[in-house]
Amino acid sequence: MTYIRPAFHHPALPQNELGYTRKDYEGSISTLCAGCGHDSISAAIVEACFELNIEPHKVAKLSGIGCSSKTPAYFLNQSHGFNSVHGRMPSVATGAYLANTDLLYLGVSGDGDSASIGMGQFVHAIRRSLNITYIVMNNGCYGLTKGQDSATADYGYVAKAGHKNIYEAIDLCGLAIELGAGFVAQSFSGDKKQLIPLIKAAMSYQGFAFLNVLSPCVTFNNNSGSTKSYDYIREHNAVMSGMDFIPVKEEITADYQEDTVREIELHDGSYIRLHKLQQGWNPEDKYAVVNALHKARASHEILTGLLYINNDQMPLHQIIRLTDTPLNKLTEQALVPGAGILDQINASFA
Amino acid sequence: MVKTSEVNPGYFHKVVDCQYACPAHTPVPEYIRLIAAGRYTEAYMINWESNVFPGILGRTCDRPCEPACRRGRVEEQPVAICRLKRVAADFKDEIGHLMPEITVVKNGKKIALIGGGPASLTVARDLAPLGYEIHLYDDQSKAGGMMRSQIPSFRLPESVLDEEVDRILNFGIHRHFNTYVNSMKSMLQSGYDAIFVGTGAPRGKDLTDLPGRWEARTKVHIGIEWLANVAFDHIHKIGKKVIVLGGGNTAMDCCRTARRLGGEDVKVIVRSPFNDMKASPWEKEDAMHEDIPIIDNHVPKSFVVENGELKGMYFEKVMAQYDEKGRRKLIPTGEPPAFYEADEILIAIGQENSFPWIERDLGIEFDEWGLPVIHEKYFSSTLPGVFFGGDAALGPKNIITAVAQGHEAAISIDLYCSGQPLEDRPPAQVNMYSAKMGIHEWSYDSYVTTDPRYAVPQADKSQTLRNRKLEVELGYDLKSAFLEAQRCLNCDVQTVFTDSKCIECDACMDICPTNCITFTEDGPEQELRMRLLVPALNESQDIMVSGPLKTGRVMVKDEDVCLHCGLCAERCPTAAWDMQHFLYNTAKAGQSCYV
Lengths: 350, 595
Description:
The complex is a heterodimer of chains A (350) and B (595).
Chain A: H1 37-51, E1 59-63, H2 67-70, E2 80-83, H3 89-99, E3 104-110, H4 111-115, H5 119-127, E4 132-138, E5 141-142, E6 148-149, H6 172-178, E7 183-188, H7 192-204, E8 208-214, H8 230-236, E9 237-239, E10 242-246, E11 262-265, E12 271-275, H9 286-298, E13 302-309, H10 316-319, H11 332-335, H12 339-348
Parallel strand pairs in A: 1-2, 1-3, 3-4, 4-8, 7-8, 9-13
Antiparallel strand pairs in A: 5-6, 7-13, 10-12, 11-12
Chain B: H1 9-15, H2 17-21, H3 28-36, H4 40-51, H5 54-60, H6 65-68, H7 71-74, H8 81-91, E1 110-114, H9 118-127, E2 133-137, H10 146-149, H11 158-169, E3 174-176, H12 184-188, E4 194-197, E5 203-204, E6 220-222, H13 223-231, E7 241-245, H14 249-260, E8 265-269, H15 281-289, E9 294-295, E10 298-306, E11 309-322, E12 328-332, E13 338-341, E14 344-347, E15 351-352, E16 386-388, H16 391-394, H17 399-417, E17 429-434, E18 436-438, E19 441-442, H18 461-464, H19 478-485, E20 493-497, H20 507-511, E21 517-520, H21 525-530, E22 543-545, E23 554-558, H22 567-570, E24 577-585
Parallel strand pairs in B: 1-2, 1-4, 2-3, 4-16, 6-14, 7-8, 7-14, 8-9
Antiparallel strand pairs in B: 5-15, 10-11, 11-12, 11-13, 17-24, 18-19, 20-24, 21-23, 22-23
Helix pairs in contact in B: 3-4, 3-8, 3-19, 4-8, 5-8, 9-17, 13-14, 14-15
């Protein structure tokens, strides 16, 4: 019996600008099933945070209940964490965020946690434009309770037990765009080349950044009738564009055709560079994106990549004109400025 | 790049670094596991089959396995392989019943072994059980060769040596001791079916050209001759001030022996810089521990003799310069010569082969340096039926190399005597089987401990310096032997990948604690090595490449720092990865298929 990860690491492990290695961003060893897509997403989060030179103590990772919501234990061991009630992670995240805008918020949820029990919380977090990276590890089933169909299971898919799903699926990406999320992307746990830059871009985005990651459940939803199996996703994956995340603007060096490259600057000065764009694809055109998602659904395609981005999205703290100093750092003196200030305010009404 | 073949035992053989580096290819991890399990006798027998002298080598081996040990690449110190071998020897039970049967009826072939050292004894061990009549010649009164004459008893107790040497002699070997063979011609005419020469490198180099050497002759000794005289009780003491010239293991044995025979101010003075010295690091440490300074960068200039009495030596101070190819040159510093006082001086600056007893008109070809022309794999000379091994064959090396060559020579002799061509050698024997016992259970201890290397306790200096026969190293006790054995990474439990089973979930790549595994696009090896999660820069280590997977990518595993922890296989949902015990045994004489 092992379940113990050796303490040794590769002696030539690269360091980032902070002098940390990937090891410094890892968590405990996973207790999920061998081959679970969620573990790949955890590894992608580790890699993204390493490459972004994020200080682990500047991250708050929050989750609800489910296989997906266990994963914050498996990455960023040195970050803040909150494992909340089922489906209630958005509320906890909102509270934490209002108290301390200095942290980087990373919400991890699943299709059960977000599309069923937590749907009410999920939609309002989007509507309020919470400044968070919200990752749904979407496997189309309730893996923790032996694989019942979830609300994102596709209509007509055949479950491992043999029955066909008779309900329509909730399209979380379409829903997020509809409710005004400013950053919406869809990816696949088995494609780190696409997933890592998407996570990096989402974590650099100001506002609600939603990432729906299809993540096969090897134990209950990787059978031949499944529409969320490794094989099915690979066969039906329609990549809308390649993507690079560029921390600081630099010259285009790769040999791309002019009309297939698109650059989007984020508010922190970093860039998203899309290349090999699909014909006529424009992730800043909301109507076109919604259209494409509907068409893809009809043709059983899975659109992946950065689906939609609205760079003018205002995050919650700006909408409600929150003070620049995080609330948890305001002193009593700032909060109770005294009679003099009160007199001034009263005088201003005269 | 071309897919790594999982049926190629050569690939997996190379992964077991220690075994691969060992000249005799002893299955190291296999016996270390047995030691951890408390099965010392079995651990000893694995060694005995492979290297013939586990008790001797467990104390004296040059340990080429340890610098190769994978553990040295993930932390500071390799596993103490050599001293674990000694544990097997120290704690084994009675093994008489495990010895091969020596038949009374012989096969009718007579073999002469000239020289009673490790190479000849190995040939005897391999051939006697096959029915050969073996005759062993040595000019000393006992067998063992340099193991007896050059290695001091405080490193290798006589009882240990006798036990392992006598075990072979008791295989019905005909002993011709105190017999100096002075003519190969007469040996060839004595009716032997084959002759094996294992006479070592018996001539110590001298400094005959240095001024004062002749005048100082009574107080200046050749190191290996002096050690032999000590070993055979002809010499019992030495002057108070002793200089030992040379930087190899013989120099270390000389200085430490001198300390035990009355040398109070014993120095080692060597031409090369300290770090370039040929002596093993641990032998240098042991010498310095016995208050013997090592003075480097000093080239001997002259012996100083006044009124017929040795006073000391002059040395020229030098410094080492290296050219771009790493070749060393010793440049004089220009300082005045340094004088060191000495009552006696031991010269241990190397040794060489010497064959005055082999007539040059017998068909045994010699090269321009007076060394016999030997086939590097078969150890045959240019005269059919005459074979060489050990230091006598390809120049001075060490015991374990002599053993390895003895095994090969025994195969050659066996083939020769049965009329087979020497190239029809039996293949190595390989066995491979899964270690899987459950989801997280393996038939080996896959846990990787972070314990640093355990030190071997030594007897107190005040005791050991008074008695040259008192062994300095005490050996591991059973508890530290177990803990040290647990440091072994089990490199012989191989990671075996079946690409048709892989669903490319990345689980193995994500879990690997040392980032050995990468799924990526195929490419030429050099370019592929650079594209891995951590670039594979250690080119002495292979990379394992799968065939194309479903997405067209390949799985690439860098063997360099794989901990063999089995996590890739534990996290694999489809058992595309498996951990498999791999046992590699080199061929021994008698394993051929006779036609």
